[in-house]
């Protein structure tokens, strides 16, 4: 399936595919990947919603939102007296790209949700009514196995794992895989591993090449061919409050995320299990 065909099909049958960008290890480019993959998909004319599910509000800040000053955030949507979701949704500076923002208030959600019935499905109840508005919903998870992360996995169709090319990342990948197995068993049987994307890659380093080769051996076609290089342009664009695809659209980093978006769309419709089966044949 071509990327263009995937775009046409998504638009014709709009019922958002929910993707959680998740890694229990921090500092791996997860928020950067959420912002720039979402912006690159929006460039294809797809309607994309980004969900900031980290109390640090890094995703919101990366899109230029003064998140500490917000009166309503995704936290309010998870509470019993939730406001209308349109009161929380924000437009961004990128066409077709919307945001459900977050700030430190979200840290209280763990405490408030713990005694709720069906607490693991709180985020699903927020997102299900608006899935027909979008083609993709990307959730930026916090770097820990929290109730919020479990909520993201419980409502997601797939998981993209951004990972830095260093050996500690391999252990984090194994831990996440175990977590996904438990979520499939207890909460979300349809959850799949959509892919693994290598970030902050430096091909000059033997260590980086060895780790990527190790992931390729273990996960085969689930590893995206596109790699995201280490560059100062990413933190610079974050300070500017824009995706790199808009702030410096001709930069190598921006082009790499466009390549990742094309590869992601090309794969759409194939489950992680199907890819794993094909790699074993």
From TrEMBL:
<protein>
    <submittedName>
        <fullName>AAA family ATPase</fullName>
    </submittedName>
</protein>
<feature type="domain" description="AAA">
    <location>
        <begin position="17"/>
        <end position="192"/>
    </location>
</feature>
<dbReference type="Pfam" id="PF13614">
    <property type="entry name" value="AAA_31"/>
</dbReference>
<comment type="function">
    <text>May play a role in septum formation.</text>
</comment>
<dbReference type="InterPro" id="IPR025669">
    <property type="entry name" value="AAA_dom"/>
</dbReference>
<comment type="similarity">
    <text>Belongs to the ParA family.</text>
</comment>
<dbReference type="InterPro" id="IPR027417">
    <property type="entry name" value="P-loop_NTPase"/>
</dbReference>
<dbReference type="InterPro" id="IPR050678">
    <property type="entry name" value="DNA_Partitioning_ATPase"/>
</dbReference>
């Amino acid at each position: 399936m071509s990327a263009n065909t995937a775009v046409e099909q998504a638009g014709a049958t709009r019922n958002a595919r929910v993707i959680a960008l998740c890694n229990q290890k921090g500092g791996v480019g997860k928020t950067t990947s959420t912002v720039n993959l979402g912006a690159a998909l929006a460039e294809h004319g797809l309607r994309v919603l980004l969900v900031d599910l980290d109390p640090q509000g890094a995703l919101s800040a990366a899109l230029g939102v003064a998140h500490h000053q917000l009166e309503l955030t995704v936290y309010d949507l998870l509470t019993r007296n939730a406001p209308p979701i349109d009161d929380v949704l924000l437009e961004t500076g990128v066409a077709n790209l919307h945001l459900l923002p977050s700030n430190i208030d979200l840290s209280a959600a763990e405490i408030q949700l713990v005694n709720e019935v069906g607490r693991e499905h709180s985020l699903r109840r927020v997102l299900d009514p608006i899935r027909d508005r979008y083609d993709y919903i990307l959730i930026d998870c916090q770097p820990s196995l929290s109730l919020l992360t479990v909520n993201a996995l419980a409502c997601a169709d797939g998981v993209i794992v951004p990972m830095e090319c260093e050996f500690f990342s391999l252990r984090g990948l194994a831990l996440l895989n175990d977590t996904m197995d438990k979520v499939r068993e207890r909460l979300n049987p349809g959850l799949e591993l959509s892919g693994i994307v290598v970030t902050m890659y430096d091909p000059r380093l033997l260590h980086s090449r060895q780790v990527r080769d190790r992931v390729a051996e273990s996960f085969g076609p689930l590893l995206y061919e596109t790699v995201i290089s280490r560059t100062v342009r990413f933190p610079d664009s974050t300070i500017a409050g824009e995706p790199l695809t808009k702030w410096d659209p001709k930069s190598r980093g921006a082009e790499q995320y466009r390549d990742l978006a094309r590869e992601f769309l090309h794969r759409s419709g194939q489950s992680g299990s199907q890819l794993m089966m094909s790699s074993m044949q």
